[in-house]
Amino acid sequence: MDEREGSQRLRIIFESAGCTIADDAPLSLGARPGAGGAERIVTLDGWDEARRIGYEFITTDAGDRAEFTPEVVAELEAKMHAGELWVFLVDEADIPDPAVLERAAQRFLDALRARGVLP
Amino acid sequence: MSGTYTGAEVANLLRWQRDEVDATLERANQAVRHHERMKAELSAQLQQAQADLGAALLPQLDPAWLSRAIQLTGYTPFQHQDPIGQREKERAQIHGELAQIDADPAMREAELLRHPRTGTLVVKRAELMGHRAPWAEVLDRAAHPRLPHLIDVGYGTERYDVPFWRLSYYQDWQAGDEILEKFPGKQAFGEVRDEILRARETVTTFDQAIGDVDRQLAYGAQLEQRRAQLAHELSRHDARYLHGARERLVQHLLTVDAKAIKPWVSADPNVELLYLRASGLAAKMRYLDAMIQEHAQKASAQLYEQRQGLERQIAKYSRPKKLYATYPRDLIDQRTRSRKERWDKHFRRLESSYTTVYVYDDWSRARSYHDLSWWHVMTDGRASGSYIPEVAAFEREHPDWRPARDDFDDFDDSAAAAAAAVEVEAVGSTGHGVDLS
Q: ipTM of this predicted complex?
């Protein structure tokens, strides 16, 4: 299963849960520390701007390693710890068969429902 | 008869000559194959002759027999090398090592320690395996491709900190659940994890203990194996030294000049006859090899080359532009005449000489010669062996001796003539100005 197929499956699951997903959507992480206030923007594979929920496949082929550096992932996770946004992160090294991916996505969405992020 | 041949006729004559060469080549190759079979038989005869000679020279390896053997062979190295002393020294070394092995507790208590059913090490190993089994069963049951990762990241403990937005969180969750299902009494993965870690530690401890027992068993088995090896060496120790001494004596006799040997061995008529038999058989093998090399293998190479030349000539005279050119009949007849009779004579002589040497077995006849050349004894000088270096050397030392006739000399001429026959390209065509070179 490649990034494209995985993204399509996630889009269906996220939209079934009530999300409105935009493909390859930009997300601002705010000003880059120590970079003169320049804004840092990353592109997510799927993103619901209104609910601030999305998903990202991190793959080497797609050049994601250059964009989603450990610092960027740490920044994203800091925002998730703060409850500002929720991005389901899938590393290609962990990409399982489709059934496992779909079950994991459902559980992620269940977790958001439990937190009141999704109805 | 005067007249001409066309190129097509010359090509046919050359084909006929090539077929004749093929038949002769096969005859040469047959002689080589036949010799290989004869050589195998002779080799067995020579081996037996050498063994018989060795046994007659040295029935036992003791001082009296050794002294006699030295006198009969002139083999002086045995005067200072002391094979009997060496044999006893090595025997003492073997006994020493055997005593050391027998004194080792692992060997002294071999039965107590390693009896297949009641040996203490065997029983201990079985007990350790029995105690290890339930813990190993826990590990077998918990086996899962993701288990090492779950243990590493502390899944099921407070240390586990993978956040829920990572896919790996759900993979850990799923793997943990799959493992937990195999332990019906456990409520959470943390409990299973504790049991797995305990099992790992326990199995490691038992494996170390079992490894110790295995090392002791292996050491004991190694001692037993070495002991059996030494006992076997001891059982054939005397025979090995006797055989070695006999081999050296026989090799000495067969390599030293017969002139020097004969006065010694003639002191014992039986030894002398056995020496002559071994020496004669060894010479027979050398002569037959040389005979086949000189008169069959060389002929084979020559005939093969001749055949290649004929093939080239056949192709040449079969070309359209040569097919109807004409060539002088006399010259072509001379160059393509049959060599069969000469080759038949050559091989008849080879077979005759070969058989004379091969069947020879009157070993005692050589007793009357002071300086021994088996070739001359075997052939009575009826065949030339001057292509054999030792025969040539003998003839140089004895210039008065002459062969009755030189069997293969005229072959050399005929062979050269046959080889020249293929040089048909040197023949000019008659008046057509065709360059045949």
A: 0.91
